[in-house]
What we know:
Distance between the termini: 44 Å
Strand content: 5-15%
CATH topology of the largest domain: Leucine-rich Repeat Variant
Radius of gyration: 25 Å
Strand order of the largest sheet: 3-4-6-5-7-2-1-8
Amino acid sequence: MVDDLSPSATRPAWGAVARPPRLSDPARAWTRLAEEGWSLAAGLWTLEPELGLGGPAPRLSDDWLRLERDAWGRYALAEQEADARSFAFVVARLGGRRSVAWLAQELRALPQVDGRSEMALHVLGLLCARGYAIDEVALAVAQAGLSARDPQVQRASRYALQRCARSSPDLFSREGARLQLRDRLVATDERWDEGGGRLTWQALAALAEVPAEVSPTILGTAPPPWLVEVEAVRALSRHPEGRSRLLSRLATFDVDGGLAGPRVHVVLEALRGLRPYPGDLSAFTERIAAHRADLIGKGEAPTRGVDWVECELAWRDAVHGGRLESLAACGPNLDPVAKGALVVDALTAQIAGASTKRPIDRLVAMAADADEAAGAYALAALADVQGGGTVDALRSALLGGDPARAAAAAGAVAARSLDGSMLDDAFADGLFAVAGHPSESAWIEARVTAIEALAALYQDASRVPRGSPPVETAVSHWEQALDDPALTVRAAAYRALRAHGLAPDRFPATDLVAPADADADARSTLDGVRGLSIATDHGDFRISFVGVDAPQNQANLVQLAAAGFFEGTTWHRVVPGFVTQGGDPRGDGYGGPGRTVPCELSNLTFGRGAVGMALAGRDTGGSQFFITHAAAPHLDGRYTLVGHVDEGMPVVDRLLVGDVIHRVEVVRER
Length: 670
């Protein structure tokens, strides 16, 4: 299971946990919540109020706890289901440990046949998605929902269980309880449809368990919907018996008919899940080679899906067989950035089990080369590597003037700073230089990551490398950054100060209401616009803006499309069953248009086909956007939703990393 479920422009920065503001007037604050929707709480404060940053969690203010209680009261007393649902998700973003306990008590008293039970279970899952643990009472009521007559309650129960299994590993680790829950999940899922089946397999993946009997349709004939099957192979790859079944089924998999359409995602996820484990895939490899030869013999070019499968097999040969040259020969039609990232993954795996320094030298060479297509990936991978010129490569990237490479290097340094054996005073000057870079849009992500890296570097005064500036220098820098024009930079400085036991008297918030002139200009740009039409390697699909109010972000996309910005860019990130992401001119997730757009949050939900803006922090939207393959409730109110795919979603399902956006046209009213 890929659990990096944030459609960020890049990998999530270390310690990105904001703190609640001091509320001088909680009643007024709640009035704003009620008027503007629960997204205000989710988006403005990025709420994780009880989760610590590099130390014990700070004590919550009485004002904040009162606001949580008020939110809960309005949810509990709401008579209309629509009102209750709105306030329930305010609780999901405002609530903490107390709300988890209150939900458990409410679920004990509710009949499991109505919308209130479904809401309560869903909110419990969202609280677990934010990292809160549950107790045995909450586990019991979540399990009871599996037997509810209402299928919506059953689905909400599965969602809660798969999320809470990750946030409460100790509670779910007892073998007897885990096996009992596994059997209940399978026994109560009679339909195995796209919704229930996905959630069941996700819960099994969280438990690292597989059913005693696995349906022969998984990697077989007459398969279930691909969104179900992809979660099934992820779950199977997390268990020894499941991996054995994957290997045996791949040996007989119908490669001629099974690599067409979105089912190629299933095969690729199976191979990725098997990456760390040696196993005999020779029969499958031979079938793939024969399939490629057959296509060429018919005068057809192998599809990108075949190229990706071939390169996954080459990855195994490179890592388990020690033959990195296998990756050089595979997938001749793959995008160089994407293929370079695969080489970085292989080198990282080789380093973990190698007795020589050759993989380190190769990785450092990729990281140090400013012209290397996958250089940012290589820099990020140096987080866990020592020696071989890694320090020089990272420092050079910090001081080299490229914001993308600086962001990747700063993220690696932050991770290294958490390990006392990898601290180095050579990074301090570069981090301060990046963190203090003039506040241009292209540098915001690098600056935020550098501030967080400095917070990690100085997290323990006794471990700060000799030769680094004193911690007072960092504190002074963070205090100055509280006045930065960019909210994301201010928030990073605030978090750094809180992590060091300092309590700024102001939270770096901003008003969610966009300036009237900016909003008016955006709406003028959108006059007569219905959405966008996107042409890809697999066909066209259309994004509709109708019913979605995000004028600044929508107008930004329209302007970029009209200027031809997207033409020739690739889909650089695909997480099957979650999102497809594109719009980056660099192709590695670190690029943008050179400007940022503020978040425009709403209480609209991210269901299948929702289109949202990728972020590297609050108000950092640019050109990168993502499309959800299935419901993703943990994104609601946290990312700007700009539209929905209303035509051509099967095209989106088939997209792979490296597929090209040929053109984006503005769709206007007729």
